[in-house]
UniProtKB/TrEMBL annotation:
Coiled coil, from the record: none
GO molecular function per UniProt: DNA-binding transcription factor activity; sequence-specific DNA binding
Pfam families with a match to the protein in the record: AraC_binding, HTH_18
Keywords: DNA-binding, Transcription, Transcription regulation
Protein name: AraC family transcriptional regulator
Origin species: Sphingobacterium siyangense
Domain of life (superkingdom): Bacteria
Keyword Transcription regulation: yes
Organism placement in taxonomy: Bacteria, Pseudomonadati, Bacteroidota, Sphingobacteriia, Sphingobacteriales
Amino acid sequence: MNRKNTIPIIDSCSIDLNNKTTIHIDDLKEYIIKHQDMVFPHKHNFFHFVLFTKGSGEHIIDFNHYNIEPYQIYFMVPGQVHTWNFTGDEEGYVVNFSIDYFQSFLLRTDYLERFSFLQGKIEQLIFVIAEQFRKQSIHILEQISTAKAAGQPEDYIRTLLLQFILFISISTEKDHQEHSTPYNHKIFNSFQQLVEQQFKSTKLPSVYADQLFITPNHLNAICKSYIGQSAGEIIRNRIVLEAKRLLVNRNLNINEIADELQFNDNSYFTKFFKKSAGLTPEEFRKQL
């Protein structure tokens, strides 16, 4: 099966269409006008986040619908599928930056992995900024925009963006971190990374537990303490999500998708998908 055909509709445009830079910040209203022809399910090959200061309508990330509200922020990682249905009154900021934007700047190349909202987990990528943090959030984004427009050194802009990410982390993750142990947090993050790498070939929680040197029961307990789902549910949800992403591409038939996800036969894949999604793959595709 041709690998390039396994990818759904993609937005393959550069971060900045004019300057080919590795970071782009824009006024949300202007960005929507520039990209009004992109209102269809698509992917990015870069990190993307939007902060709404006002607006209505909805945006759709990995087939989940979210109503817009003031000071809502969402983060997307490369590979997620999204589109939007705005009503035209949106205001705010949009920032895109490349996957390797910090790699030459930080000694730890995996530094961004510490931020849960940059890991593409649907339960963590969207939230509303608390009122006491809103003014400072806007201030940092304005600094990035001003520095970018003035042609300031790239490392200075990187520092401002990292400041924003750290500020958002402090304002949103403090309570969760206070109720978790460093060990459990590391295990949970490691499990999520393993699932992301192996979900096509490895579908049993016990195999992941062996790799993490813990028991399946312990793994389940950690997963439930974080997001209320068992390890098996997390694995199944990731497989179904990938199936939905592939179903966006109508050039792929169901047999090819089942093969890509390493199911032994089409019928088992169809039963698996329907049990989790409530629809057969064909019904889901028609719904799209």
